[in-house]
Write a structure and sequence with these properties.
Layout: H1 10-29, H2 42-48, H3 60-70, H4 93-105, H5 116-132, E1 140-144, H6 147-162, H7 168-171, E2 179-184, H8 189-197, E3 205-208, H9 218-230, E4 234-241, H10 253-262, E5 266-271, E6 295-299, H11 300-303, E7 311-315, H12 318-325, H13 357-368, H14 370-393, E8 397-401, E9 407-412, H15 419-436, E10 442-446, E11 449-455, H16 463-481
Parallel strand pairs: 2-3, 2-4, 4-5, 5-6
Antiparallel strand pairs: 1-7, 6-7, 8-9, 9-11, 10-11
Bound molecules: pyridoxal-5'-phosphate (PLP).
Length: 488
Amino acid sequence: MNNNSLDLNQQEFAQLLAQSAQLVLEQFEQLTSAKAYHYHPQQEVAAWFDEALPLEGMDTEALLAEVRKKVMHTATGNLGPNMYAYVMAGGTQVSIVAEQLAATINQNVTKWHLAPAISEIEKRVIQWSAEMMGLEDMTGGVMVSGGSAANLTGLTVARNIAFEKFGVRKKGLFGLPPFTVYAAQEVHGCVDKSLDLLGIGTDQLRKIRTLPDFTIDLQALEEQIIVDQANGFHPFCVIGNAGTVNTGAIDDLDALAAIAKKYEMWFHIDGAYGGLAASLGSLQAEYKGLSKADSIAIDFHKWLYQPFEAGCTLVKNWDTLRRTYFKKADYLDTALEEDRGRLEFNEHTFQLSRNAKALKVWMSMKAYGIRRIKDMIQKDIDLAHYLADQVEQVSDFELKSRSELAVTCFRYTGNFDREAEIIDINARLIAALEKDGRVFITGTRLNDEFVLRACLTNHRKQKESIDYLLNVIRETAKTLQHEPQPSY
Ligand SMILES: Cc1ncc(COP(=O)(O)O)c(C=O)c1O
C-alpha cells in the first residue's frame, strides 16, 4: 500500500482484480444450484456488520473473503432462474465488465467536456432505444436511476411545459386551479409519489376503474374528465400503462392518445416494465399509439436485463427537457463558441453529477445485438404463457391472470374445497417460500383477492425453471398443511 495516496501498487492491484474476478466467476458457477433467497433474520444480518468505525485499513484479501461470505454468498438470487418476485432482471456479463470499466474512468456525465465519449454514448443509447421501439420521433431523453425516476422526470416535464405560461417554475403552483392527472387504477405507485413530489397532490390523481383485462376503462376516463372540467379542475395529463406491474396489462394507448388530444392534455406513458417489449413484432397491435406519447418512461434494468440502476425518459425533443430543467450558474457556464454541438446533460435533467449508466447499456446492445435481446424478451413471454398453461392444466393450481407480457398470477388450490382454506394457504405460502429459499416469488392483490405473482424477466430461465417453481410451491404448501390449521 502506498502511503501518499490510497492506491495499491500495480502488482497488488492486479492481484485484487484477479481475486474479485474469481468472486464473479463463482456466482456464475452456482447460478442454478444457489438458493433464490437465503433466509436470515434481520437481526442476524445486522449483527454481521455491527462493528466500530474502521480507523485503520485491513488487508484487501481478507476484506474480499469477508465480502464473499457475508455479501456474495447471501445475495438474493436475482441472477439465477428461480427469481420471480417484483420485476427483477438477471443482469448481463458484459454489463459486469462495463460497470467496472465505468468505475475505473469515473466520468461525470454532466458537462459534456467532463465525459465526452460517455455523453455521446448516452445520446446514442437514447436514440437506439427509441429506434428499437419504433419511436424515431422521440429525439430527446435522459438516463435516470430507474422506472420511478423516469416517471417523475416525464411528469415533471409535463407539468413544467403545460404550465410554462403561468411561470410555474418560478411561482410554483400557488393560485392555479388544481390540475388533474388520469391513469388506470392499476398504475404503479411511483406515479402517486411523483405527483406528491411535484406539488400536484395525490388527490388530483384520478384512478380510473379498469376492464376485466385490467386495462383502463376509456368511457369511465372520459366521464371523469368531463366531471372535473365542470367542477373547475384543469385536466392536464393522462398516463397510459405499457405493461402494468401487477398483470402486464397494456392500455389502449391509441385511444388514450386520442383522448389526450381531444382534451389538450399531455400524454405520458409508463413503459418501465413493458416499454421495451414494443420492439417485438408479435406485439405491434398491442403497442399501437405508443409513438403518440409526449413522454415515455422505460427501464433498462428491467427488459434490457441491465444490473441496477438504469432507467430512461424519452421525450419528443431536447428542448422540452431544457425548458424543464435549465438553471444558469456561473460555475457551470462553459459554452465554447467553436464547439456548439456539445449537449450539456446538467441542463436537461435534475442531477448535476451523474454516473456513466449508458456504458453498460451501450456495450450490451452492441455485444448481444438487438435481435438476440428481443429473442430473450420473447422467450420470457413464451415462458410466462407456458406457466399459465401449466397452471391451467393441473387441478391443484388456478390461473388468475394471463398476460401479453411476462407476468402470470395464480393461486395454489391443492385439494381444498373451501375458499377460506385457499386464501389462507396462499397467504402463508409467501413467507414459507421465503424461508425455504429455493424459489423467490411474491404476491399481489387482483380485484381484492390475494394471488401469487410470477414475473419472468430473466434471460436465464428455461421451461425446467417453471416446472421447478410449481413443484417447490406444491412441496412447500404440503409442509404447511401439516402445521396446525386455523379453524374456519
Ligand atoms: C410499471 C412500472 N412502473 C414503474 C416501476 C418503478 O420502477 P423502479 O423500480 O425502477 O423505480 C415499476 C417497477 O416494477 C413498474 O413495473
